[in-house]
Amino acid sequence: MGLNEGLFWTLLITLVKIAVVLGIVLLHAAYTVYAERKIIGRMQARLGPTEVGPYGLLQPIADLVKLLFKEDIIPREAHRVIFQVAPLLVLIFAITNLSVIPFHPSFYIADVNLGVLVILAFAGLGTYGIILAGYSSGSRYSLLGGLRSAAQILSYEIPLGLSLAGVILYAESFKLQDIVASQASSLFGMNAIPQLLGFIVFLICAFAETNRAPFDLPEAESELVAGYITEYSGFRMGIFFLGEYISMYVMALLISLCYLGGWTLPFWLTGLLPFLKGIPPILILIVKVYFIIFLYIWVRATFPRYRFDQLMNMSWKVLIPLSLINFIWIAILKWGMLR
């Protein structure tokens, strides 16, 4: 009876954690769209949403209601089952990544020793949803968008993984909690300082992994109408966008945990500003995540879209060699520290 009761409470606590994380992330995803429209509007000397609610704050809810009530159109030439399942694959794999991310030293859904590898695996699997969406739509534009996504993810997964290899080598662990702890106890306080090259490479790859501008080639409205989502409408199209914004938060969390010290602050910073020691760890992590999300929006408003050949050349000729140089540098640094 005691064993069953313990299992019941463990399951209940896990379900509550899932509900809390999912609710907070979904709310953030909805209002990131609002923030993006307002910030880009200001950058382009316009206002963004203003009509629905005070300062347009109810615009995400209005957009959600609109998508729910729009007709769900399935093209005659589409492969019906795959066409319907593809958006769910993108969303499910994006949400699954949240289960292995620690938001606090004592708050996480699953305590996984190989957390970094799990996130990389599910991030790659989410691409299958985009590929299947392009294949099943019965449209040349959609198919080209799906093929572009496959080539893009295949190319950028390599420098992304190599950049993280330096982080793993420095921390001597695949566990995200250990990576944060190693930064807190290190001389620099965060991996972004000794691994600046790897940090920049990872940041660029994070934009490509989430199909965000200037690497939004799978959609590329000026070339492919809307790419892999050309034939989608209503709530299925909304699921794609939801998966994209959740993936942005997954990448922002991963950058914050692996390169910016997670929920900790460098000792030299707290030494200069002692009042920072009183800030709750979760608030520190949130500020870092918001900073990365702001970078996503800022880059979209600033840089034009790359051509596809430029996209591929950057990965194979620039980012992969730089990530290898970063890994070699960290190996030398670690060897020197262990001597």
TrEMBL record:
Q: Which reaction does it catalyse?
A: a quinone + NADH + 5 H(+)(in) = a quinol + NAD(+) + 4 H(+)(out)
Named from the GO MF annotations, one term is:
oxidoreductase activity, acting on NAD(P)H, quinone or similar compound as acceptor
**Record-listed E.C. numbers:** 7.1.1.-
Q: Which domain of life is it from?
A: Bacteria
Which biological process annotations from GO are given for this protein? aerobic respiration
Which InterPro entries does the annotation name?
NADH_UbQ_OxRdtase_su1/FPO (IPR001694), NADH_UbQ_OxRdtase_su1_CS (IPR018086)
Q: Which residues cross the membrane?
A: 6-34, 81-101, 107-132, 153-171, 191-208, 246-269, 281-299, 319-338
Spell out the subcellular localization from the entry. Cell membrane; Membrane
Quaternary structure annotation from Swiss-Prot or TrEMBL: NDH-1 is composed of 14 different subunits. Subunits NuoA, H, J, K, L, M, N constitute the membrane sector of the complex.
> Which family would the database say this protein is a member of?
Belongs to the complex I subunit 1 family.
Q: Which NCBIfam families match?
A: PRK06076.1-2
Role, per record: NDH-1 shuttles electrons from NADH, via FMN and iron-sulfur (Fe-S) centers, to quinones in the respiratory chain. The immediate electron acceptor for the enzyme in this species is believed to be ubiquinone. Couples the redox reaction to proton translocation (for every two electrons transferred, four hydrogen ions are translocated across the cytoplasmic membrane), and thus conserves the redox energy in a proton gradient. This subunit may bind ubiquinone.
Under the heading PANTHER family, the entry gives:
NADH DEHYDROGENASE SUBUNIT 1, NADH-UBIQUINONE OXIDOREDUCTASE CHAIN 1
Identification of the protein by name: NADH-quinone oxidoreductase subunit H
Name of the gene this protein is made from: nuoH
